[in-house]
Design brief:
This protein has one domain: TolB, C-terminal domain (Neuraminidase), CATH 2.120.10.30. The protein has one helix at about 10-30, and strands at about 50-55, 60-70, 80-90, 100-105, 110-115, 130-135, 140-145, 160-165, 170-175, 185-190, 195-200, 220-235, 240-255, 260-265, 270, 275-280, 285-290, 305, 315-320, 325-330, 335-340, 345-350, 365-370, 375-380, 385-390. By secondary structure, the chain is mainly beta. The chain is about 5% helix and about 40% strand. The strands form six sheets. It has a five-stranded antiparallel beta sheet, with no helix packed on it. The chain has a four-stranded antiparallel beta sheet with strand order 1-25-24-23, with no helix packed on it.
């Protein structure tokens, strides 16, 4: 009686091979698989987006622009409070917002920090608070105004920079031929008794949105936008005073826009090596100005770090602790992470996917700021007038 091959006895060598295979199989199950690649940057580690508060004030101001995290406690402001200003009034006219709100992350309470008069006599054209805002270690808050009376650049004024005390009261107003519509978020070096501010100016010679370029059909581009460095002296108990004014970048494109009011250089971020990164919105690129704090002349439009690709009209910039940049897009709801040392765009994340806009989130993003622990960031969404925090 013959036996089938399935029941045939096996040799010792075959038995050993089977035992080894069983052991190896067990090890394969017990041992972890290959480790996942480390994230290239910050964005890949952030998965939650939490709405913190509405930025709409009692007077109806809306369209949040600037975000500043308080470096110290002073007056009505507590350390790590988040200050947000508004660019529009209750009629949704751009260049008419007059308010700054203050959110305390610990108490979760929001209060009105400042409400400025619409027609501040010292400020040419009045008040329309922009993305240009900072708070100094001495407690002073400095904010830019790019004003209008009809919500377009047709009636815009030259604007000004306003110094507020820690109670939200106007202490000084800065104007001059080199200040014309302070527009972009402020990069700051703060040493207490002195400080240096870097601010983009985007209003020189910009006409109304009806003045178009016959070649493109878009509002005419004027290549006169600048980056201005202001060196400040701060005496105890007195408002900061400008000790030196230097244009360190010029020739950037600027133009009117019927939806966004104005398109010009917006984001400014200062690296540890003294390089100032600038988001050139019209050029759809990130530029670098070397030796920004010490140079005596203008670097023109700087050196291109990265251009096009994931960038869709870059707006506010912020420097991440790892040396990368986060860049808000104006023409979709994405934030982009850039490695400026390599000139490489690393990652894009949808942080506003509102389908009411096309593309989603188009026109919704403006200011951005890192959280105090450096592990997340704050941003504003214009479509819902809210501050949002991106966290792990």
């Amino acid at each position: 009686m013959s036996l089938s091959s399935a029941s045939a006895p096996t040799s010792r060598s075959e038995q050993r091979a089977r035992r080894l295979a069983a052991v190896l199989g067990a090890l394969a199950i017990a041992l972890p698989g290959p480790a996942l690649a480390d994230p290239q940057g910050l964005l890949e580690t952030l998965h939650r987006h939490v709405t913190r508060f509405s930025t709409v004030t009692d007077n109806g101001d809306l369209n949040p622009y600037a975000i500043v995290v308080a470096p110290i406690s002073a007056g009505r402001i507590q350390k790590d409070d988040v200050l947000v200003d508004n660019f529009n009034n209750m009629s949704n006219l751009q260049g008419t917002g007059t308010t700054i709100v203050d959110y305390n992350p610990t108490t979760k309470k929001t209060v009105l920090f400042a409400k400025l008069p619409q027609n501040l006599a010292q400020c040419p054209g009045g008040i329309g608070l922009t993305t240009a805002m900072t708070m100094l270690k001495s407690g002073w808050v400095i904010v830019g105004s790019t004003p209008s009376t009809d919500g377009t650049t047709r009636t815009k004024g030259d604007g000004c920079l306003i110094v507020l005390d820690a109670q939200g009261q106007v202490a000084a107003v800065w104007t001059g031929p080199d200040i014309n519509d302070p527009w972009g978020n402020v990069a700051t070096i703060d040493q207490g008794s002195t400080a240096t501010l870097f601010i983009s100016m985007a209003g020189f010679g910009v006409p109304g949105p009806e003045v178009t370029d016959p070649k493109t059909g878009f509002p005419v581009t004027v290549t006169k936008a600048t980056v201005l460095r202001l060196d400040l002296a701060i005496a105890e108990g007195k408002p900061p005073a400008i000790s030196a004014r230097t244009v360190i970048g010029d020739g950037f494109g600027q133009r009117a826009d019927k939806d966004a009011f104005l398109v010009g250089p917006t984001g400014l971020a200062l690296a540890a090596d003294g390089t100032l990164y600038v988001s050139d919105a019209v050029g759809n690129r990130i530029a670098a100005i070397p030796e920004a704090a010490t140079r005596k002349d203008s670097a023109g439009t700087g050196k291109t770090v990265t251009q096009d690709g994931l960038l869709k009209r870059p707006l506010a910039l912020v420097l991440v602790p790892n040396g990368h940049l986060l860049v808000c897009n104006a023409l979709n709801g994405q934030v982009i992470e850039v490695d400026p040392a390599k000139g490489k765009q690393l990652y894009a994340q949808w942080i506003d996917s509102d389908q009411a806009q096309s593309p989603p989130g188009n026109g919704d993003l403006f200011g951005i700021a890192m959280t105090p622990d450096g592990k997340g960031f704050y941003y504003v969404e214009d479509d819902v007038n809210a501050l949002v925090e991106a966290t792990k």
